[in-house]
Structures are given as C-alpha cells and as structure tokens.
Amino acid sequence: MNTIDTSRRQLIWGLAGGGALAMAGRPVLAQSGSIAATTYPGAWETAHRQHLVPAFQAETRAQVNLVASLAVDTVSRVVAGRANPPFDVALLDEGPFLNAIQQDIFEKLPVDKITNLKDIPPRFVEPSGLGVFASAQVFGIAYNTDKIKTPPRSWNDLLKPEFKGRVGLVGLGSTLGSAWIVELAKLRGGNEENLEPGFDFLKAVLPNVGAVAPNPGSLATLFQQGQIDISVHYNNNVGDLQARGVPIALARPDTGWSLVLAAFSIIKNTRNVDLAAAYVNAAISPEVQTKMAEAPFFVAPTSRRATLSTGVQKYGTLADMEKFNRVDWAKLNPRRAAMIERFNREIRV
Predict the structure, then answer these.
(1) pLDDT on residue 172
(2) Segment 207-229 mean pLDDT
(3) What are phi and psi of 173, to 5 degrees?
(4) What is the mean pLDDT of the chain?
(5) Are the C-beta atoms of residues 265 and 96 closer than 8 Å to each other?
(6) How many Å separate Cα 291 from the centre of its chain?
(7) Which of 63, 77, 191, 302 has its CA 20 to 30 A from that of 318?
(8) What residues contact residue 258 under an 8 Å CB cut-off, 6+ apart?
(9) Domain match, 247 and 264 both
C-alpha cells in the first residue's frame, strides 16, 4: 500500500481575514440578537467577513458568529444536535447539501422574507425550497508561476518527475477533493460509479506528493508557504492568494474547467428564522454577489442583477459555466463515505 512519509505530510488549516463593507441606501430592519452561520476556511471566510456579514448587520443590526467549517462536518454537527442546532444558517456545497436533504435538517425558505429570491433563476433554487445556490466556483490546475514557467495543460502533468515532492493533494472530505477524484476517474475511463481509475491516479502521483491538506483553505496555505508548487484548486482561492502576493495562476486542463455550486440553507429548529432569512437574503443580494465576484475572490454569482467581474469573465460567461464539467452527485453521494475512508487509509495516512 502506497503512503506518504509522515515527515513530508502537512495537515494545516486556513487563514482568516477581516474587513468591512456597508450596504448604503438600504432600510435597516428593526431586529436584534445574533445568529451562527457557517462558511468555509480560507478565502470564503475572508470574503464573508468583508462583504456578507457587514451587509447583514447593516440590514438588521444583529450579530453573526461566523464559523469556518467543511460541509461534511457542518452536516454531522447539525444532525447530532438537531433539537438544538449549533447553526442557524449553513453554507454547503451541492454534494453534501443534496445528500443532507435526506436528513431532514433544513427549513423551507420563507420566500416572503427573502425578497432577493426573485432575482435567482429557478434552476438555482432547490425544487422543494430547502436552499438556494448562491455562488459557483471554477477549479483547474493551480501552479507556482515562479517555479513552473510552462503552464500545465493536463492532470497528467502532475505525474512528471520534475514535480517530485512538490504536488499537493486535498482530502476527499472536501467537495473540491470529491469533485477532483471524479475528474481523475473520468480521465482514465471511470466515472462517479467507478472511482477505481481515480484512486489509481492518486497512487501513481504519490511519489510526487509533498503535502496533503484537509480542505481548500489549508491547501492555499501550503501554496503561500511554498511547500507545494502544483495542485488542484478553486479560482477564488487562487485569486485570494494572488492578492497576497503569492506567485500562482490557474490553468485550464485539457479536459476543461470544472464547476461546483454552493447553497445557503436555514437549519431546522432554529430560534432565529427571521434573522436567518435576512442572512440568506443578504447572501444572494446583487450587491454582495457583485462584491464576491470582484478581486480577489472571483466567486461567480447566481443573481441576475449581479455584475460579472472581468476576473470571473476570463473563465467564461454564466452560460459557458453551465457547460463546464459537473459531478453527478446523485451517483457519487452514496459512495462518498467509503471513498473518504479509503483515501484516509490508503493515501492520506
């Protein structure tokens, strides 16, 4: 069984940031109190602290306990404490979100309290009204532009001998890792129901692996600290690193760009439905989505009224993105638990 030497493994966590942005010219709701909402470690947390949280506070004067959490961890915590949930609002990638619907942990969105839903195309709203997809992320091959002068063009480039000890992996407990192994499986003739070719690729790349990260935020930190030079990553994490002065770019694989959506949901049994709805409303507002799409975050919006930044447009229009590689989560989700366990046993450990 191939493993990574423990002296070369790095399991680290993402960076958090802060800032402020107020939404001007909007009426302030006469509310008070606080909610707990999840985000993702790294660039997502930075963006939400800079744009979403201040927008919500300007509307409500309420407080937000923003918790960085991977989707699978969020769902586990909510299921374990469903009578007294630890969060009022959750941000979940589409795979964990669609799978969690079976757990009956979401409230139906109160449409009358989330007025910005009118600007979200129906395809971005879960059919039962249990969540709204608020953003899209593109992923490809991230690489250090100082160390790698010729942009990579294929996932197979990670197997090149010159990258020995310089390749980074991301755990399959993250949506990025789950979506990536599907791409790797398809590269060698597999699919969501046949991941063996994907694991074959990961075993083949092990001699080149310098570090394994549990999530995209910690993967970004590996790049920032110079511990890896090439890996899979999201466009928004790459944009955030570029803003920090890290020499990094994102290359389009010859198999095409891939896309992952993220949904906001209100957690069942929350005692703060109105504030939770106001938070979701702020998240899908054209103002917040436009800011999230700008440098350095480059998160693609789903609101018809949001402006698509030039940084996002370089990957394509929203119509183009609908044609990007996607995961069939209905087929992958039943296999995720076993897939994660196998990765942790055979690759990460």
Answers:
(1) 93
(2) 95
(3) -70, -15
(4) 89
(5) no
(6) 17
(7) 191
(8) 138, 139, 140, 179, 180, 183, 324, 325, 326
(9) no
Alpha-carbon torsion (133, 214, 217, 143), positive or negative: negative
Taking only the tens place, the pLDDT of each residue in 100-110 is: 999 999 999 99
Segments forming the whole domain that contains residue 222: 6-13+137-258+328-348
The confidence score (pLDDT) of residue 72 equals: 85
Q: Are residues 227 and 343 in the same domain?
A: yes
Rounded Cα distance between 37 and 266, Å, is 9
| Continuous segment of H or E residues that includes residue 224 | helix 216-224
pLDDT tens, residue by residue, 317-344: 877 887 899 999 999 999 999 999 999 9
Rounded Cα distance between 181 and 186, Å, is 8
Q: Is 27 inside a domain boundary?
A: no
Omega of the bond leading into 296 within 30 degrees of 0 (cis): yes
If asked whether residues 90 and 231 sit together in one domain, one would say: no
> DSSP 3-state assignment of 33?
coil
Q: Do both 218 and 105 map to the same domain?
A: no
Q: Please report the beta strands in the chain, taking only residues with DSSP state E, as ranges in sequence order.
A: 34-39, 63-68, 89-93, 106-107, 132-144, 167-170, 209-213, 230-234, 248-251, 258-267, 300-301
Residue 28 domain flag = no
Give the closest residue to 64 by CA, choosing from 46, 83, 81, 49: 49
C-alpha torsion sign, points 281, 284, 290, 294: positive
Of all residues in the chain, what percent carry a pLDDT higher than 90? 77
Stated pTM of the model: 0.78
Beta bridge partners of 66: 37
Domain-embedded: residue 179:
yes
| Contact in structure between 72 and 102 (CB atoms under 8 Å) | no
Specify the CATH number for the domain of residue 269.
3.40.190.10
Same domain, 273 and 193: no
| Chain segment 10-39, per-residue pLDDT in tens | 333 232 333 333 333 333 444 569 999 999
314 burial class (0-12, 13-18, 19+ CB within 10 angstroms)?
exposed
- Tell me if 117 is assigned to some domain: yes
* pLDDT tens digits, 58-116: 999 999 999 999 888 999 999 999 999 999 999 999 999 999 999 999 999 999 999 99
